[in-house]
């Protein structure tokens, strides 16, 4: 009897451990049928996404709850999701917010305070953001005016770059705090681009860095480069989004590469895992516009990932997945973003 009880307790503990690996952050831009399709989702498709979450009992929580739980190593319920929007477009107020309110789902909007202060007509003003915040929306930092934060100006020293970007991030944060009252130290990188130096600066300032590369999150995630699944444009198709919503995060103990923004081409990535609920033989990586990546297992826990040929200039990715053994239909998912210079 005691042996049976021991195995039952062990099963419960293992189940709780596995549940903690299933958090996903979704990223949207426009909810519109008239703006660029690549960054847009129609109101009907957006409603379809939220209906799926509701019908399949997803745990949709505010972004701050999700991040705090991960930082404190707490267990999250299975199928936990946070919803985010970048840029604070007017259609978020006109189209997205009423749909989200109907479902009772919390969400976060990352805004560019300098563009708001300049009165740019395509983004919400502080009055609309204040109204949404009073209804429960979280308002967070997307930099002052959506610049490429890792870019250095002509003849700019590293110290000058750091001072300029630090001022941008902190001034933007202060404007949000003054106008909204929120002081969530989350920075969504414009264009999803970041390099080692930007990650280090964001961490030094006490911020969480959030990208646009795909993948689930867990307690072992790097909090200077949390992934989100884009859910607009090509990525808005529900059949493929369902796989992402049910994805899990690899337990990665070390990630080694030259830099996310690099002249090394093809770039090289080394991943060290705490091996768990997947078979090495089913682990695979794919390279944007190239196909399957080359894998070299250095030891039982460490794999080197390379592209079989040079990547195109600009943004690219390595997407790595493996089916979960104990969660049928669920995939572990990790994405490494690149900007090839």
UniProtKB/TrEMBL annotation:
What does the UniProt keyword field contain?
Answer: Signal
Question: Signal peptide: which range, if any?
Answer: 1-22
List the GO cellular component terms: extracellular region
**Keyword match Signal:** yes
Entry keyword Signal? yes
What are the residue boundaries of the NodB homology domain, all occurrences included? 79-287
Tell me the Gene Ontology biological-process terms attached to this UniProt entry: carbohydrate metabolic process
GO MF annotations, alphabetized: hydrolase activity, acting on carbon-nitrogen (but not peptide) bonds
Where does the source fall among the domains of life?
A: Bacteria
Query: Where is the major localization of this protein?
Result: secreted
Q: Where in the cell is it found?
A: Secreted
- What is the protein's given name? NodB homology domain-containing protein
Traced from the root, the source organism's taxonomic lineage reads: Bacteria, Pseudomonadati, Pseudomonadota, Gammaproteobacteria, Alteromonadales
């Amino acid at each position: 009897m005691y042996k049976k009880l021991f195995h039952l307790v062990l099963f419960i503990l293992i189940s709780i451990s596995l549940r903690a690996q299933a958090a996903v952050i979704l990223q949207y831009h426009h909810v519109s049928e008239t703006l660029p399709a690549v960054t847009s989702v129609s109101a009907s498709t957006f409603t379809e996404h939220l209906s799926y979450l509701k019908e399949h009992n997803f745990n949709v929580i505010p972004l701050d709850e999700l991040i705090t739980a991960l930082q404190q190593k707490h267990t999250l319920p299975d199928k936990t999701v946070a919803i985010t929007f970048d840029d604070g477009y007017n259609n978020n107020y006109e189209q997205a917010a009423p749909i989200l309110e109907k479902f009772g789902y919390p969400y976060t909007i990352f805004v560019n305070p300098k563009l708001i202060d300049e009165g740019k007509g395509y983004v919400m003003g502080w009055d609309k953001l204040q109204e949404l915040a009073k209804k429960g929306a979280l308002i967070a930092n997307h930099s002052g005016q959506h610049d490429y934060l890792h870019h250095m100006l002509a003849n700019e020293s590293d110290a000058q770059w750091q001072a300029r970007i630090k001022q941008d991030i902190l001034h933007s944060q202060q404007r949000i705090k003054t106008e909204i009252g929120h002081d969530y130290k989350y920075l969504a990188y414009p264009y999803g681009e970041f390099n080692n130096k930007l990650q280090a600066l964001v961490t030094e300032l006490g911020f969480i860095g959030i990208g646009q590369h795909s993948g689930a999150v867990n307690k072992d995630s790097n909090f200077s480069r949390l992934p989100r699944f884009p859910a607009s444009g090509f990525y808005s198709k529900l059949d493929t989004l369902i796989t992402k919503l049910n994805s899990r995060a690899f337990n990665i103990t070390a990630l080694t590469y030259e830099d996310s923004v690099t002249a090394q081409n093809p770039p090289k990535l080394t991943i060290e895992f705490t091996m768990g609920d997947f078979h090495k033989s089913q682990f695979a990586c794919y390279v944007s516009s190239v196909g399957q990546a080359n894998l070299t297992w250095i030891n039982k826990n460490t794999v080197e990932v390379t592209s079989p040929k040079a990547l195109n200039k600009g943004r690219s990715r390595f997407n790595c997945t493996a089916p979960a053994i104990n969660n049928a239909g669920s995939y572990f998912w990790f994405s490494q973003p690149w900007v090839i210079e």
